[in-house]
Amino acid sequence: MATTTATIAISSDIADNTFSISNQSTLYTAGTDTGITETTGLARKKVATSSNTVLLDHGLAGGIAQDVTADRSAKVYIKNMNDRGDGTKWVNILLAAVEIGRLYGGDFMFFPWSGGDGKDIEFTCESTSGADATETTLEYCVFYE
Amino acid sequence: MATTTATLTLESADLLSDNLSLSASMSLYKSGTTATGLEQLNYHRAILAEDGDFDLIAESTLLSEKANYVYICNKNTDVTHYCIISINSEVIGRLYAGDWLFMPWDCDLTHATADSSVEIIPKEADATIEYALFHNGETLPTSGD
Fold first, then answer.
1. Residue B111 pLDDT grade (very low, low, confident, very high; cuts 50, 70, 90)
2. Is A67 helix (H, G, I), strand (E, B) or coil?
3. pLDDT on residue A116
4. Is the model more confident about A64 or about B8?
5. Nearest CB to A3 within list B12, B67, B103
């Protein structure tokens, strides 16, 4: 069994008193305290297209994502490696074509993933003007059972 | 202007043949800005009933098309306890006891059949959830009296 930990630390002066969140979780298989033993490792994807791109293809025969199903544990890390610039360009992260959130340059996300048919993780590069073909680099990693 | 930073650390000494140590840090900025920090925060702790389908973070007009970041943590300790997190009727994943997520949230009001509120379905009674929303303004309900 492997021991993998994910730690988040958020600190802010947004309120009158300093606000902070600190939490650590160990990545377990679903409903157990047995550590997750598989990972894609850290990967990097570079695109320069305004079209939709599949980052993690659940339907890919023999692909890693095929092991990720709704009742299994999987955690996904994605980071937009581009510079933030003026904050008018972002990567739209989609799950099964549903928009989840925008990763601006330098932003990251870490979330559990319930895989299954059609539940690919995709992205599109966008700006305030619409679809955008600026070269964009994402780094990502999946931990799964 | 507020300064809010989020730092993620992923570590394992035995998942791979070499140490895994990944760290990412980001500032939470308003959309369309170079470096203007988000200034508004909601932070909650809730104990939820089993199998209800709740809007944990409700969509609103002012949240739409903006930079929003969500943190959710399942504070239960029984490893079999989990909550299902979804957006626009699309299941993102399961947060097991001790798990947390941090992600941007696209408050997309264009869907006709499903709303973009961040929803939660606790699968055990007394699910204790802590959650935060960093945002750039939300539409509050108008007082009825």
1. confident
2. helix
3. 83
4. B8
5. B12
- Rounded mean pLDDT of A41-64? 89
* Distance of residue B143 Cα from the nearest chain A Cα, in angstroms: 25
Round to whole Å and give the CA distance between B69 and B118. 11
Contact A3 B27 (CB under 8 A): no
A120 pLDDT exceeds 80? yes
A57/B131 Cα distance (integer angstroms): 30
State which H helix or E strand residue B10 sits in.
Answer: strand B4-12
* pTM to 2 decimal places: 0.96
CATH H superfamily, domain B40-135: Jelly Rolls (2.60.120.10)
Domains located in chain A, CATH noted? 38-144 (2.60.120.10)
Report which DSSP code applies to A106.
T
Instruction: Specify the DSSP element, H or E, that contains A93.
Output: strand A89-95
What's the rounded Cα separation, in Å, for the pair A118 and A125? 21
Whether B55 contacts B119, CB under 8 Å: yes
CB contact under 8 A, B68 and A101: yes
Domain boundaries along the sequence of chain B:
40-135
